[in-house]
Amino acid sequence: MKRGVCQCKAALRCAPFFASPDTLNPATMNQATVPTAHPQALPEPDLVCSAPGWERVEFISDLHLRPEDPATVSAWLRYLEHGRFDALFILGDLFELWFGDDMLQRPPEAPGSELLQRSIQALQSASARAPVYLMHGNRDFLLGSAFAQHSGVRLISDPCVLEFAGQRWLLSHGDAWCLEDRSYQTFRQMVRAPAWQQGFLARPLPEREALARMARHASESQRSAGNTAATSAPDAPDYGDVDAATACQWLRATGCQTLIHGHTHRPGQHDLGAGLQRLVLSDWCGLSQPPRREVLRLDRQGQVHRLSPEQAAAPTPAAQAPVPAA
Ligand SMILES: [Mn+2]
């Protein structure tokens, strides 16, 4: 049964978001050319239209799957197996590191191989039941078509528009709109350019892995020691926050009321004025006490529910006590 209709525009799917020929010019690369998000310059996002039978659409992000956090891996695999979503949107940073789809061909004894193979199998089973949409995050933006083919997920652009429950929802990972962090935006422009990615992916896998780990270390050591935002997880990275004016501009340009994003690890709901709002997803971390993991569910009335993965996978009361047929 085909449960969802995806009208992804394949040509836009992997389009570099803010890349221009200038991003490859070393002379201009250091000038931190932060995008100004002028409406006329906005690329057209992918559009996902819900199928008539969808009751529950769920969103997760920032699981940062890695062997060092086995509790998150188990929770993720259980959720995929038992989840009751009619469509699942993974809004970036599913994996802590991704340095090319040829990671799928590594021998089983390679670090992280087991986690990867189990994730692929679970995604295959889940996407046979309901569509699973995957957006790139800043950690796993090199997830490509081979991963999508193996796992059954559908890659979507950042941002992407979802039509569900009589509304249009704007979906993003969020990193592209954290404009305060100018050095990150410059880095992002560089690594999202197709030419840079071709060059990187042409390097041997072990070299790419070493470079990816170095880049992660560098970004982690830049974290501010005192991330004091009251709503942040204590170990939340100091990414700055999504620029409100940019979020509003995108919401208006796409005819959406609500932005749903991850990346900042600061779950919350923010009124942006004029009927606009943004919902921020939680990260998943099994190493914190208590562990953090959250599923955001939209029901067919457009109501928002924040659930643990276990709650999201639990049968509904109606399913527990079916009304006997007359
Ligand atoms: Mn992120």
From TrEMBL:
This is UDP-2,3-diacylglucosamine hydrolase. One of its GO terms (molecular function) is manganese ion binding. Keywords: Cell inner membrane, Cell membrane, Hydrolase, Lipid A biosynthesis, Lipid biosynthesis, Lipid metabolism, Manganese, Membrane, Metal-binding. It catalyses: UDP-2-N,3-O-bis[(3R)-3-hydroxytetradecanoyl]-alpha-D-glucosamine + H2O = 2-N,3-O-bis[(3R)-3-hydroxytetradecanoyl]-alpha-D-glucosaminyl 1-phosphate + UMP + 2 H(+). It is found in: Cell inner membrane. Hydrolyzes the pyrophosphate bond of UDP-2,3-diacylglucosamine to yield 2,3-diacylglucosamine 1-phosphate (lipid X) and UMP by catalyzing the attack of water at the alpha-P atom. Involved in the biosynthesis of lipid A, a phosphorylated glycolipid that anchors the lipopolysaccharide to the outer membrane of the cell. Residues 221-231 have a biased composition (Polar residues). The gene is lpxH. Residues 309-326 have a biased composition (Low complexity). Substrate binds at N138, R139, D181, S219, H263. Coiled coil: none annotated. It comes from the Bacteria. Its cofactor is Mn(2+).
